[in-house]
Specification:
Elements (H helix, E strand, L loop, with lengths): L1 E9 L5 E10 L4 E5 L6 H8 L7 E6 L2 E2 L5 H6 L1 E4 L11 H5 L1 H5 L4 H14 L4 H4 L9 H13 L5 E5 L7 H18 L2 E6 L2 H7 L2 E6 L2 E6 L1 H6 L2
Parallel strand pairs: 3-8, 3-9, 6-7, 7-8
Antiparallel strand pairs: 1-2, 1-4, 4-5, 9-10
Helix pairs in contact: 7-8
Bound molecules: adenosine-5'-diphosphate (ADP) (2 copies).
One adenosine-5'-diphosphate binds next to α7 and α8.
Length: 228
């Protein structure tokens, strides 16, 4: 689903954030990038949806070469969840979730059904939550909306950058469990960035350990626990 061929990134100021790397992420895989702050995780993630352009190398998403597709077409196939809860504060929950479906000109009924379906998936009753604004939700509830908003138009790929780091430990654990359960149903290709090895082991089908802009190990959680 996602392939990197000798992809590297050097920023304008000369910082090499990512050394040439090869990577293949399978369809439906929950893939985690883990490593200390500054090791190149976010840069790697953002190259997938071209928020950052690679300096060298090729990236393929869903069989298509990055460079042959318009950025907005690429981004329609890729949901994106950030650490900072980034809901539009002046919009209701339903308006927030509808942003991408509206951009794609879905009809009202289809969007409305999708909103209810997504809210049910994360245990939030649409009758209660559809018309609320972000400041009327807990941190955990806001990030649930952040996650389902990224899923709204049913993209095959979802990128998540430390989505639960800003939450308290109890909310974080609940959202981790809910995400695992959700993934059983939706089977998206998820690329998830975290600096927390426990979180990586709990969530990942496979885990890539990064250090100094390189991937130093790619393993299943079981393998990683045996050969840390
Ligand atoms: P991580 O997500 O693992 O914390 P990043 O990908 O954010 O790592 O950063 C990797 C390296 O690139 C770090 O040394 C960081 O300081 C540097 N870096 C990140 N963004 C920029 C930028 N826009 N310009 C210059 N250097 C950057
Ligand atoms: P926070 O911990 O930031 O306040 P949460 O979303 O974790 O936000 O929890 C808000 C409330 O919703 C809690 O009181 C919890 O009991 C309830 N809640 C959260 N997730 C679920 C769930 N999956 N099933 C049932 N109740 C839940």
């Amino acid at each position: 689903m996602i392939t990197f061929e000798q992809v590297s990134k050097r920023y304008e100021d000369g910082t090499t954030a990512v050394q040439p790397l090869d990577l293949h992420i399978e369809k439906g895989e929950f893939f985690v990038l883990v490593g200390p702050s500054g090791c190149g995780k976010t840069t790697t993630l953002k190259m997938i949806n071209r928020l950052i352009e690679p300096t060298q190398g090729s990236i393929y998403v869903n069989g298509t070469d990055h460079n042959t597709i318009q950025v907005h077409k690429l981004r329609q196939q890729i949901g994106y969840v950030l650490q900072q809860i980034a809901l539009f504060p002046h919009m209701t929950v339903e308006e927030n979730i509808a942003v991408t479906p509206d951009l794609l000109h879905w009809d009202r009924d289809k969007t409305s059904k999708r909103i209810d379906e997504l809210l049910h998936m994360v245990g939030m009753d649409p009758a209660v939550f559809r018309s609320r604004r972000p400041d009327e939700l807990s941190g955990g509830q806001q990030q649930r909306i952040g996650v389902i908003r990224a899923l709204a138009a049913d993209p095959p790929v979802v990128l998540m950058d430390e989505p639960f780091s800003a939450l308290d430990p109890i909310a974080r654990e609940r959202l981790q469990n809910d995400l695992l359960e959700l993934q059983q149903t939706i089977r998206k290709t998820i690329v998830f960035v975290t600096h927390d090895i426990q979180e990586a082991i709990k969530l990942g089908d496979r885990i890539a350990v990064m250090d100094g802009g390189a991937i130093v190990q790619v393993d299943t959680p079981q393998q990683l626990l045996q050969h840390p």
